[in-house]
Amino acid sequence: MNKLKLNYTSLSFLPILVCIPLGYQLINNIHLGGFKLFQEFLISAFNPKIDNEIIITVINRLNETILIGFFSWLVSISFGAIFGIISSNIFCKIFNIPNFFSRVIRFFLTIIRSIHEVVWGILLMQIYGINFSIGIIAICIPYIAVNSKVFAEQLETIDYKSFESINQINAPKFSSLLTLIWNPIINTFKNFGIYRLECSIRSTVILGLFGIGGIGTSIFLSFQALNFRELWTYLWSLAILIILSGIIFKKIKFNTTNKILSIFFIAVFFITILFSFSYFLYFIFNNNFENFNSVSSLLKSSSDLGLFDFLKLILETIILSLLSTGIAISLPPLVIGIFNNNSSKIFIKIFAFLLRLIPTPLILLTLLTFNNPSLSLAALTLGLHNAGITSKLLFTNLDNQDKRNYIAMKSLGISKKTSWLLGLFSQQAKSYLAYCTYRSDIIIRETAIVGVIGSVGLGWQLQESLSSFAWQEVTIVLIAYSSIAIVGELINGKIKNSLT
Amino acid sequence: MNNALLELKNISYKYKNNLILNKVNLKINSGEKIALLGKSGSGKTTLISVLNGTIKPTEGEVKLFNKSYEELDRKQKRKITTIWQDLRLIEDLSAEQNVNCGLLAENNFYFAFKNLLNISSFKKAHEYMQLCRLHNSIYDKKIRKLSGGQKQRVAIARSLIQGSNILLADEPFNNLDPKLITTIKNLLLDNVDKNNSKKSPKTALVALHRLDLLNNFDKVIGIREGKIFFNIKRNNLKKFHLDKIY
Ligand SMILES: Nc1ncnc2c1ncn2[C@@H]1O[C@H](COP(=O)(O)OP(=O)(O)O)[C@@H](O)[C@H]1O
Ligand SMILES: [Mg+2]
Known about the structure:
The complex is a heterodimer.
Chain A: H1 8-13, H2 19-28, H3 35-44, H4 52-86, H5 89-94, H6 99-114, H7 117-128, H8 132-155, H9 160-168, H10 173-209, H11 215-224, H12 228-251, H13 259-286, H14 290-296, H15 307-338, H16 342-357, H17 360-367, H18 375-400, H19 404-411, H20 416-454, H21 457-467, H22 471-499
Helix pairs in contact in A: 2-18, 4-8, 4-10, 4-13, 6-8, 6-22, 7-8, 7-21, 8-10, 9-10, 10-11, 11-12, 15-18, 15-20, 15-21, 15-22, 16-18, 17-18, 17-20, 18-20, 19-20, 20-21, 20-22, 21-22
Chain B: E1 4-15, E2 18-29, E3 33-37, H1 44-51, E4 59-64, H2 74-77, E5 80-83, H3 95-101, H4 109-116, H5 123-131, H6 148-160, E6 166-170, H7 178-189, E7 203-208, E8 219-224, E9 227-233, H8 239-245
Parallel strand pairs in B: 3-7, 3-8, 5-6, 6-7
Antiparallel strand pairs in B: 1-2, 1-4, 8-9
């Protein structure tokens, strides 16, 4: 008898089994009431509204989005670098600080990172009301923590021996520190920093859906008014923005030997730090926390949230993450493998691009036109969006791969699909799975976004508790949410280690 | 009075149950030029690391100017400079930037900053690189692009520019061709600070494994399996000494 062998290739396809329970629930929830709407939504993609008025609106909204995105990027990358340095081992070694210190900072950053920017945004909007700086702050909080982790990781690559040799010179400690971290920091800026700008623009769009302003808000409002042609104008203009910025950033080559440019960047860095710090102080002292005070009496109010309900929400969130991760892992190789020809490839690429482009809440709202809200629907949404992202990576890696095996197998008369699987994908499977574990960390955090709209899990409860100012509940939900994310990250870390 | 600059008292160093240094006693007096002989794996590098304070011995005392390392301030520690066997340059910086790192100690933070931005003065660095026979075409090349011999000389220039009194050099002639070895050896064992007219003798301990390079040294120390077998004037070195350690 043939035993089922579990290798990386089969492990990449196995998670598609989540589709069985998922599909079952989805089929049971189909309603045809909104089918016409869905049709209209799709058709409008090819017929976006274009006139002078809307073009001006698009430009204005895009400007807002770019501004929020740009400033949150600038602030989060600058402070990310600083926190990354402070939480690195090299910093502790040079200043003789016990390792305990860096562990405390890292732990603190892990907690902050575990909560999605949309959750921060909703939270801050509830306390301070809606304004631009709330958007920037909401993005910056988790982004600083994420960036600092990346910077700290890069700083760990500094050779201990070069540290010893610089230490031996017994220079002022800041001089030694700067000399050692200079190149890793610059390289992280170059390789990772620019990519983060795109991320923060996407986050701005999502926060916009929740009312913070910019193109996201327009997208949401036009969807609400079922104004699909206008909606697609916004979506396509966002697509153009993202594609254009991708092209521009690929062209830019930062030359660190260019003195004037280097000095300019460093000046921007320090101005950003100074400015945002003083703004932070201004923000603290100029907000009289009116909303907050008026609700603080409610802090003592007992929570309606029973233990059983609470556990159910946690379970829902975990299941949601698992189902979505399953789709994000298995769907791309499955689809790419089955439709393995050039014309399908283009079609898949476009579809994946759309899945990445359209913010998850909007995907969910669209799906809601013909399916009742359910956990499966939320999972499908999150899974599809992330499959768009994992498939981009898979395509890039497959395109760059040596195709000799594949060609050899095909010429032996082995079928195209089998050759693709054994000759191409099997060599990618391991690194693909490793990337998916990282993606899964993000999926856990994003459960909050679809939760708010799809009325599942802790995300939904958070919205409920916030709108009734039940701060105690909010706190409990946040703790639960961040615990799930942290535990998930630990598990994923273990899996990733075994994969690399 | 004890006037040893550096003193090791009964030093032992254990690494994973291996005794790498075994009850080493050693005094280095001001002005002495000492050659440290021993096969590869005999403990030369470990001994040098103990002397410059990067390795804490498992047992015994290290004294620098009659003080333990913990009692020294940074200024006093700067009196020692090390040329590492594995060089330990910063690969992503240029040769001249690496040499300038030797000047970090006597300058402030702003200098370090300017050095990284390539806007500091490289005048002194270039002088020392010239002394090490480094051609000016490699001044602004990244370390990772240099040959072994060029890297070796950048490391030497970085060490010499520090202007320390005590030099610890771990096989500094590796990768150098014969003609350069003579030049570099004279450079290491004579005073090189051109701005300093009074040619105060520099104290040096140089780990070697080539016997033909001994002529400029006052003393020779032989080490084998972490134990010092002899510590004598060079003139007294006989064949049977070498037989003990090789
Ligand atoms: N970091 C280390 N890891 C493992 N073994 C080491 C380490 N450092 C030193 N040793 C061992 O210590 C002994 C002495 O090494 P070393 O001081 O480098 O000798 P030398 O410089 O004379 O070649 C060797 O046997 C070496 O294997
Ligand atoms: Mg050695």
